[in-house]
Amino acid sequence: MKQIIKNLHNNRIFTLIVWLIVVLIAIISAPNITNTIQQYNEPSLATSSQPVKAEKLQGKWGYNLKGTITMNLVYQNPNQKITDKQQQKINNQLASLIKHQSYYNIKKITTIDTNLQGKPAMVSKDGSTEMATIQINANGNSLRVLTDQLTDQARIAGLKSYVTSPQIVRDVNNAKIAQVTKISLIALFIASTLIIGIYLRSIFAALISFVVLFSSFVTTYSLSLHLAEHFNWPFSEYSVLELGIATLVIGTIWNIYILRRFGELLKSQPESHYSTKQTIADIRFPVTIVGLVLTIIFACTSFIKFSEIQSLSLLAIAYIVLILATLTLLPVFMAALGESIFWPSPSSGKIGNSKYFEKAAAFSMWQPFASLLLVLYLTLPFIYFFNNRLNYSPMTNLTQQNQAIKGAQTLNAHFTPGKSTPVTVYIQSTSPINTEKNLGALDTLTTKLKATNHVDSVYSLTQPGGMPIEKYYVANQLQAIALIPNKRRAN
């Protein structure tokens, strides 16, 4: 029995069994990529940040609006102004939604009939586009399900209808990110496999490299998700792709390095177990050092107080797992297959020297100052013309095929460029807001915000249509009162 166990140990069977168990658990326990990106699409912000404070205030909102999602229902006549007949259809459709609002968990619907003063904010200047605002309680349903339900219910013959909001656009963007991530990972794995196969002229080496890298990636992916779920580890919508790139780039280089060294040793010592042991002994130190350096570098990103940057610390886990896979799983196949790992090529082949790099290195050693000037000449123009003024929007990555994107673009085109992504300012007062003093302060703030550069319009309690309501101002009321006695005396 001891001899059997010793033979199994020498053949690294225990290592293979452990990896099979680990990979199987990782595949079973990890959710699919689409659900992962959907779940971790929002960056984690500090509790002292403005968005978090605003979210807490919104969470205490009255009138059953606590925890609701705001959606914009958009109707457009693509040819001309909305006709009276079409307006009646819109009113009937909105009335039907109000009637069945309990079915859709709708808590509030704001239309041009329920917000007369705010009508300019809900009807475009050309009269071709009209919107209604819906506050809806998710009640456990996904945003995608709610959007599909409202989209089907809101359709009107002769008009284009859309259901959109910044959250819906972000959800569509995340679906796009998930799709691109899957395609990119498949392409990267194929590219890595082809590189190994072409470089070593071996089908077996390419397939074994694929198995090693896939095992490393799946294990890292599952482990990262468990850390994010149970220990609140930072995880972003791009983390999956980052883990794949980190694993495949370094893993491919290491596999080429190891298999090339293994092929060289097989020429002098055909016994596979000895050559495998000697190969691992030769490359263990450089692989471990490079892996640990990368691990430490990316682990340091966890100290940066920004979740998108902190999520890069997951790459530290990726490199630790990759080191283990490279030094333990790959040798299992090397020892078992021996020289057959390079089939159909009889050997790993002799790698020639690069004349270009030899000449470049010789020139650098001969004239180091000239080499430095050449490097500066090539890099300084990029530094000089670098522009860090970046402007990113999820809609720049998306096509117009999705109805939410069409709705957002329609609002931006017929209202103002920022209509689909408004900025909400939450104001909290220790005393009731409906006093003359507080309303005056709110109106002053509204006017001040309107005067800010790049702000097109501001809607508030005192200016629901984006313009002051003249009859509510004290000066106008006093003027009206003063004119009445004069009028009576004249009569």
Automatic annotation (TrEMBL):
SUPFAM superfamilies: Multidrug efflux transporter AcrB transmembrane domain. Keywords: Cell membrane, Membrane, Transmembrane, Transmembrane helix. One of its GO terms (cellular component) is plasma membrane. The chain crosses the membrane at residues 12-30, 183-200, 207-228, 240-259, 285-304, 316-342, 363-386. It is found in: Cell membrane. Pfam families: MMPL. Residues 68-368 form the Membrane transport protein MMPL domain. It comes from the Bacteria. It is a multi-pass membrane protein. PANTHER family: MEMBRANE PROTEIN MJ1562-RELATED, MEMBRANE PROTEIN YDFJ. This is Membrane protein. The lineage of its organism: Bacteria, Bacillati, Bacillota, Bacilli, Lactobacillales.
